[in-house]
Specification:
Strand content: 25-35%
Mean pLDDT: 94
CATH topology: Nucleotidyltransferase, domain 5
Distance between the termini: 10 Å
Helix content: 25-40%
Radius of gyration: 12 Å
CATH architecture: 2-Layer Sandwich
Shape: globular
Order of helices and strands: EHEHEHHHEE
Number of helices: 5
Structural class: alpha/beta
CATH superfamily: CobE/GbiG C-terminal domain
Low-confidence stretches: none
Number of domains: 1
CATH class: Alpha Beta
């Protein structure tokens, strides 16, 4: 099962989320999108999920905290306790033995990130 993890700022646009997802590998073959619980109701994210025909998995902040990620943002580490929300959300949603197949990519306007993990489900 493949899951796209998405991290983004409050002012993100649908276009920025889409750009990050495409740069990470696109929506083909994905089973779901995942993000931090406090961002799961974002309208641009819900629009992208509808566009791709995918459910959104909301990952609690406590689950994201402590997930080791290959890329690291100090701002994100201070706020969420992990180096990348996109990578951590993808890993958490894809299952306990999930592996990243696409590390975090950032949209040109720097408001959205995406990563893709593959695993055997949660």
């Amino acid at each position: 099962m493949k899951v796209a993890g998405l991290g983004f700022r409050r002012d993100v646009t649908l276009a920025s989320l889409r750009e990050a997802l495409v740069a990470a590998g696109g929506s083909d073959g994905l089973a779901a999108m995942a993000t931090a619980s406090d961002k799961a109701d974002s309208e641009p994210l819900k629009q992208l999920a509808r566009e791709c025909g995918l459910p959104i998995r909301a990952i609690p902040a406590a689950t994201l905290a402590g997930i080791d990620t290959p890329t690291r943002s100090e701002r994100i580490a201070e706020k969420f306790g992990t180096g990348s929300v996109a990578e951590a959300a993808a890993l958490a949603a894809a299952g306990p033995r999930a592996k990243l197949i696409a590390t975090r990519v950032v949209s040109q306007d720097r408001t959205a990130t995406a990563a893709i993990a593959e695993g055997d489900g949660a």
